[in-house]
Design goal:
CATH topology: Farnesyl Diphosphate Synthase
Shape: globular
Largest sheet: 2 strands, antiparallel
CATH architecture: Orthogonal Bundle
Radius of gyration: 20 Å
Number of strands: 4
CATH superfamily: Farnesyl Diphosphate Synthase
Structural class: mainly alpha
Strand content: under 5%
Order of helices and strands: EEHHHHEEHHHHHHHHHHHH
Strand order of the largest sheet: 1-2
Number of domains: 1
CATH class: Mainly Alpha
């Protein structure tokens, strides 16, 4: 079936539905990004508060940049259960999304430092250590991490203390030596060394995937109903998170080869120049793209228990994939 648009051209009704869905997602995404920016602005110390240089650098590294994919995943997972009429979990989801983004910002600040990946550009502007100095950048990472946990630990955030403890545990495990920090350690130790695909996936499931997984599980914990199938649905979300987290990294590796610096907002070709093992270097470009597609398919399939309620998580999976191809 087709309809005639105002300009006289025929438009398929399925195409219109797809366009409307894409427009709705864009509106949703932009509203969440704007909300997160507002909340981050409120929870970050004012740049005029002593120590001014540290607080200025914290805001510089956290505000006004990035697609906020992790926060969006957190919000989308929270909406699987939240009663939109009551909006009882909105504040918890805001705090969880902020905590994840603060951890992510801290990891980027430290990742760019000379003792790590040594990159001068982040989100299209000078990295924190270039804009300020190495010592300030180190302290920025420390302070952002502390602030993330302080937000989640604030008294009265959740009506059930166990829920709040669970959320703190999720974030702690995702960021420590068996999560993001451990993945970075493996990454640094792997420069110039051949890795198998399995070894590479272990590294990235920790370095990149752990925080993405935490974002989704935090959103889930912030609003999940205590239904008989709650454990089954959490397991399904975990499967989605693991697969989309790895897909995110595969796409990043492809972008490092195919995109330019202005598109990436960071130095293009950095991994290749640094002789780092990537999915492209191990599998080849086209096999890496196929692998990303397989991970995407597995992630979307895991959402089946949620039906139409998982539309935002489905759309975010599409968004992650469409960054490059």
């Amino acid at each position: 079936m087709s309809t005639t648009a105002a300009n006289g051209t025929a438009t398929n009704s399925k195409d219109l539905t797809t366009q409307n869905s894409a427009q709705e997602f864009t509106v949703w995404m932009q509203s969440k990004q704007a909300r997160l920016e507002l909340v981050l602005d409120q929870v970050l110390p004012a740049a005029t508060l002593a120590p001014q240089k540290l607080h200025s650098a914290m805001r510089y590294s956290s505000l006004g940049g990035g697609k906020r994919v992790r926060a969006l995943l957190c919000y989308a997972a929270a909406e699987l259960y939240a009663d939109e009429a009551k909006q009882t979990t909105g504040n918890i989801a805001d705090v969880a999304a902020c905590a994840v983004e603060l951890i992510h910002a801290y990891s980027l600040v430290h990742d760019d430092m000379p003792c790590m990946d040594d990159d001068d550009l982040r989100r299209g502007k000078p990295s924190c250590h270039k804009q300020y100095d190495d010592a300030t950048a180190l302290l920025v990472g420390d302070a952002l991490q502390s602030l993330a946990f302080a937000l989640l630990a604030q008294p009265g955030l959740c009506t059930q203390a166990q829920t709040q403890l669970d959320m703190l545990n999720i974030l702690a495990l995702a960021t420590g030596s068996t999560g993001m920090a451990g993945g970075q350690a493996i990454d640094l130790a792997s420069v110039g060394k051949p890795l198998t695909q399995a070894e590479l996936e272990i590294m990235h499931s920790l370095k990149t995937g752990a925080l993405i997984q935490a974002a989704i599980l935090l959103g889930n914990a912030s609003s999940q109903s205590l239904t008989d199938d709650a454990n089954q649905k959490t397991a399904a979300l975990n499967t989605y998170a693991i697969n989309i987290g790895l897909a995110f990294q595969v796409v990043d590796d492809i972008l490092d080869v195919e995109a330019d610096t202005s598109t990436l907002g960071k130095t293009a070709g950095k991994d290749l120049d640094s002789n780092k093992p990537t999915y492209v270097s191990i599998l080849g470009l086209e096999p890496a793209k196929r692998h990303a597609q397989q991970l995407y398919t597995a992630a979307v399939a895991a959402l089946s228990p949620f039906g139409d309620k998982a539309i935002r998580l489905q759309q975010l999976a599409d968004f992650i994939m469409q960054r490059s191809f």
